[in-house]
Design goal:
The complex is a heterodimer of chains A (335) and B (250). Chain A is built from 15 helices and 2 strands. Chain A has 335 residues and is an all-alpha fold. A two-stranded antiparallel ribbon of chain A has the order 1-2. In chain A, helix 7 packs antiparallel against helix 8. The radius of gyration of chain A is 21 Å and the shape is globular. With 250 residues, chain B is mainly α. In chain B, 66% of the residues lie in helices and 0% in strands. Chain B is built from 10 helices and no strands. In chain B, helix 1 runs antiparallel to helix 2 and helix 6 runs parallel beside helix 9. The longest helix of chain B is centred in the N-terminal third of the chain and has 29 residues. Chain B is globular and about 55 Å long. In chain B, 52% of the residues are buried. Classes of the chains: A mainly alpha (335), B mainly alpha (250). The interface between A and B is large, with 47 and 49 residues.
Chain lengths: 335, 250
């Protein structure tokens, strides 16, 4: 499952950080002209401190999301109902880990190392995508996550593949390819259940009912309520607004649900004949805000599980470092 | 009527099914992200090998059972895996020591099977041999690194070895099934493998600065369906969804 990185709007507003230093106006103007021309910004290029911070925040949040996202799906690896599905799921969760690693490396090009980034979300205020704070209750959740959650992430990441920061854009291109595969796999799983026994069909419909609204929330707050969006749009990190992307996702998804005989839990959903768009009901923003504030169904469990893995693994990391130090003295001296 | 080849394939397949299951439990919980990925990779290889071996077992049996039916619809006493492989995953050191002890043995078994006269089995074994080389290298490197790392990691690896070593007697178990297949040139002779395995493990454990215990070995049983109490819980979890929906496709 891959996260959206777009929910940060309301979260980050609460963080207190020293104000970014005043930038050299000439350099800043040159930088913004480069963004306007659609040029790619590379790690060694000059960039405003605020751009560096925003990207570090967005990218690391994306990386944390990939790693936390391993938990809800990992929850079903040991219960997958046949060997093919089990292998697909292991491979998918493994891919998420790979994405996390890849994006952490991309984030490090901005000057903060992985250890520090991980500390920021395990013990600090850094966030991950809130979608992973919902529980996976049945096997059908695995299909629905692939279809809806990865589907929503793809809509977002396809845009981010054109982001102005080169390492992030390149990571997104590669990741999108795998995500598309996950999405197809998830949709195929849902289709299989939808044409299965009555119990299987009920299971997948129930999962869709539970995941639909959280998936729409993945695109973040309304444009009118998204404080970082202006900078991110001006610097071409984002190219489309939260609401535009959300609408695109709904337009893509409604016909997919219809094709496999599933309904979406929104009585207001209807096709606008003139625009050709699917109009949908209002998101429950109080739920959105509650989950972001740490009070979703699984926030505490997710962080507890990640902390446990990190802390239980400390002796392994320490031993690896000790072994390396013992057996590579030459390399140490050379440095 | 169960034939020796069917039994033998169940033993090979169940080892990988069960160990792959245990390894997959690490997914999302590893000590470092690289290891979540690496251990998942091993689990994936093993589950894939299990699928091939159990499908072949089903064909050999000729009663229309495939790998999924064998994996999901047999009970504890019908499983033929080594008991060592069903033990809970323990800490990361335990997982790596177990993988190493198993992979070192599997290496020599697969080397033999890859050249055996049963073409289908030889093909699967050749693929598994290649995959197992990676499992063996990865796990042995961790055994050495952790054994010779810090005081704590040394203590943990020594403890894992003390728990696991007595179970290794089962690696060399042989009965009429093996005798029949050895006569056909399919199964290897465990007496030939044992010294090679001992040499390989001694070399790695020496570098890891740990020592196998000298005490008594455990009772054998896995190959005959006599297991620890852990297997039933593992299977209850693994089989729950499949068994809750008899006749369903997934």
């Amino acid at each position: 499952m891959t996260p959206s990185t777009r929910q940060e709007g309301t979260q980050m507003a609460t963080e207190t950080k020293p104000a970014a230093p005043a930038e050299d106006p000439v350099k800043l103007a040159e930088f913004e002209a480069r963004c306007d021309r659609g040029e790619t910004i590379e790690p060694k290029d000059w960039m405003p401190e605020k751009y560096r911070r925003q990207l570090t925040r967005m990218m690391s949040q994306h990386a944390h999301s990939e790693v936390v996202g391993m938990l809800p799906e990992g929850n079903w690896i040991t219960r997958a109902p046949n060997l093919r599905r089990k292998m697909c799921l292991i491979a998918k969760v493994q891919d998420e880990g790979g994405h996390g690693l890849y994006i952490y490396c991309g984030t490090e090009t901005l000057g903060t190392d992985r250890t520090e980034l991980i500390d920021q979300y395990l013990y600090g205020t850094a966030k991950y995508s809130s979608i992973f704070n919902y529980p996976t209750l049945t096997w059908a959740d695995i299909g629905v996550i692939g279809w809806l959650v990865d589907g929503a992430a793809i809509v977002n990441q396809t845009m981010l593949a054109h982001a102005s920061y080169g390492p992030y854009a390149r990571a997104m291109i590669r990741i999108c390819k795998e995500e598309n595969f996950h999405k197809r796999q998830g949709y195929e799983l849902c289709a299989t259940l939808a044409r299965g026994t009555p119990a299987q069909k009920a299971m997948v419909q129930d999962a869709v009912n539970r995941w639909w609204w959280p998936s729409l929330m993945m695109f973040g707050p309304h444009d009118t309520n998204s404080p970082h969006s202006a900078d991110l749009l001006r610097w071409k990190v984002k190219q489309k607004s939260n609401d535009d992307l959300r609408q695109r996702f709904v337009n893509l998804t409604v016909p997919q649900a219809q094709a496999i005989g599933l309904t979406l839990p929104d009585p207001d959903l209807k096709l606008d004949e003139t625009s050709g768009e699917w109009k949908f009901g209002e998101i429950d923003w109080s739920e959105f805000n509650a989950v972001i504030a740490g009070n979703g169904p699984m926030n505490r469990e997710r962080i507890a599980a990640r902390r446990k893995a990190h802390e239980d693994g400390a002796w392994v990391r320490e031993a690896a470092a000790a072994y390396a130090a013992k057996h590579q003295p030459a390399a140490g001296q050379a440095a | 009527m169960s034939t020796p080849l069917f039994e033998y394939l169940l033993r090979l397949g169940d080892d990988r099914l069960i160990l792959g299951h245990r390894n997959a439990e690490w997914c999302g919980h590893g000590p470092i992200l690289e290891e979540d990925i690496a251990v998942a990779n091993i689990a994936l290889d093993q589950t894939g090998e299990a699928q091939l071996l159990l499908n072949l077992a089903g064909q050999v049996e000729g009663q229309g059972r495939d790998a999924d039916q064998l994996a999901y619809w047999r009970d504890e006493t019908q499983f033929r895996n080594l008991q060592m492989l069903e033990l809970p995953r323990g800490d990361f050191g335990f997982t790596m020591v177990r993988q190493f002890l198993f992979s070192a043995h599997a290496h020599f078994v697969l080397e033999h099977l890859a050249k055996c006269p049963h073409d289908d089995l030889a093909g699967i074994a050749a693929k598994a041999l290649k995959e197992n080389r990676y499992h063996l290298r990865h796990s042995s490197e961790w055994v050495v690194r952790l054994g010779d790392g810090t005081e704590e990691s040394h203590r943990r690896i020594q403890a894992a070895l003390e728990e696991l070593w007595p179970w290794t007697v089962e690696l060399f178990f042989e009965d009429a099934v093996d005798a029949a297949l050895k006569a056909e040139g399919i199964a290897p002779n465990q007496a030939d493998i044992k010294p090679k395995w001992e040499a390989m493990t001694a070399e790695v454990l020496t570098r890891a600065t740990v020592e196998p215990p000298k005490g008594p070995m455990r009772m054998v049983g896995g190959r005959k369906g006599r297991h620890t109490e852990h297997l039933g819980h593992l299977l209850a979890e693994m089989q729950i969804v499949a068994r809750s929906h008899p006749g369903a496709s997934w």
